[in-house]
Amino acid sequence: MGLELKNVSKTFAGKIAVDNISLTLNTPGVYGLLGTNGAGKTTTIRMILGIIKKDSGEITWNGKAVDRKSVNFGYLPEERGVYPKTKIFDQLIYFAELKGMKTDDAKNSINKWAKELKVEEYMDMPAEKLSKGNQQKIQFMTAIIHNPELVVLDEPFSGLDPVNTEILKNIIIDLVRNGKYVIMSAHQMPTIEEFCSDILILNKGKTVLKGNLKEIKETYPASRVRIDTDTKIEKYIQELDLKIENEKNNEYVIKITDEEKAHTLLNNVISNGIKVNKFDIMKPTLNDIFIEKVGE
Questions:
Q1: 74, exposed or middle or buried, with CB in 10 Å at 0-12, 13-18, 19+?
Q2: CA distance 208 to 218
Q3: Which residues have a Cβ under 8 Å from the Cβ of 223 and sit 6 or more positions away?
Q4: Which of 92, 154, 217, 240 could bridge to 78 as Cys pair (CB 3.0-4.6 Å)?
Q5: Angle, CA 61 vertex, CA 55 and CA 63 arms, to 5°
Q6: DSSP conformational letter for 119
Q7: Does domain 221-294 fall into CATH 3.30.70?
Q8: Which residue would you say has higher pLDDT here, 81 or 175?
């Protein structure tokens, strides 16, 4: 049954922070919660987790009203919170026991995740000795150490280099394979596109777009064409009054308003004996859609 929000609102000091939003997570997977700063994402997350109370509407987990006792959740907040002077292992034991784990179970879980996240060598060190990226991985451990059903990740890849980003990505994929429900909030739109089949975009507390990302994209016309050739083709692009968005090593990304011009460009290039290695007509990215919806 999963998680369901129906017409949920929250006001602070007369200002509406979340305005009548609804969403449903009824199968394991990653759900994208997006919006500009101050759009209501964090307030929504805190209501879902029972950290703050909603003013109206319903929030249920497996059909039961959500409170901090009814849902086994893990939360990685945007504001990081490791204790700088305390040994990492001691911190993890503390957080695990707060979640109701027995000490032996907590130790086994710590050892497992430390190995997967490649932070075994830091267990006896105070947090202040760790890099920002490794502190981030430790905080991620606190969110999943107790095997939660629902995991909320707010900017999970902040501060991570490409290697550690890949480690975290693979763990999130495994969480979903193991039946977990994940809500992810991030400003990196390519990350959301990679993980999330469904999204909700908030703007000033209101829902401005919601649904299956693939289906949303299908409602938009093509906006770009990517063409990779063995020589420069600016001449043919200019003849059609098209604009080059990016070019590198004869691979062009070109803005289009209709697909007919893209095919005309392809025909012109080929008819002049130029080899085409790649030709791809593209729908708008999530970044394009996000800017359209909240850019004002």
A1: buried
A2: 17
A3: 255, 256, 282, 283, 284, 288
A4: 154
A5: 100
A6: -
A7: yes
A8: 175
Q: How far apart are CA 36 and CA 14, in angstroms?
A: 21
Mean per-residue pLDDT over the chain, rounded: 92
Residue 15 is classified by DSSP as: E
150-154 and 3-12 strand pairing? unpaired
**pLDDT value of residue 296:** 61
Per-residue confidence (pLDDT) for residue 186, from 0 to 100: 85
pLDDT digits (tens, 9 = 90+) for 22-77: 999 999 999 999 998 889 999 999 999 888 999 999 999 988 888 767 778 999 98
Tokens at 159, concatenated? 């501060």
The whole-angstrom separation of Cα 152 and Cα 183 is 5
- The string of pLDDT tens digits covering residues 130-146 is 998 899 999 999 999 99
Within 10 A of 131 (CB to CB), how many other CB atoms are there? 13
Using CA atoms, how far residue 291 sits from 81, 215, 219, 295, in Å, is 31, 18, 16, 4
Domains of the chain: which residue ranges? 3-217, 221-294
For residue 258, what pLDDT is reported?
Answer: 86
Alpha-carbon Rg of the chain, whole angstroms? 23
**Which are the contacts of 215, defined by CB distance < 8 A and separation ≥ 6?**
none
* CA–CA dist 28, 14 (Å, integer): 36
**How far is residue 249's CA from residue 255's CA, in Å, rounded to a whole number?**
18
Q: Does domain 3-217 have CATH number 3.40.50.300?
A: yes
Tokens of 232: 């420069």
Between CA 107 and CA 96 the distance in angstroms is: 9
User: Is residue 250 a contact partner of residue 232, using CB atoms and an 8 Å limit?
Assistant: yes
- Residue in this structure with the two tokens 């003013």, named with its chain if needed: 55
Q: Which residue has the higher pLDDT, 63 or 18?
A: 18
pLDDT tens, 180-237?
A: 999 999 888 888 999 999 999 999 999 999 999 999 998 998 899 999 999 999 999 9
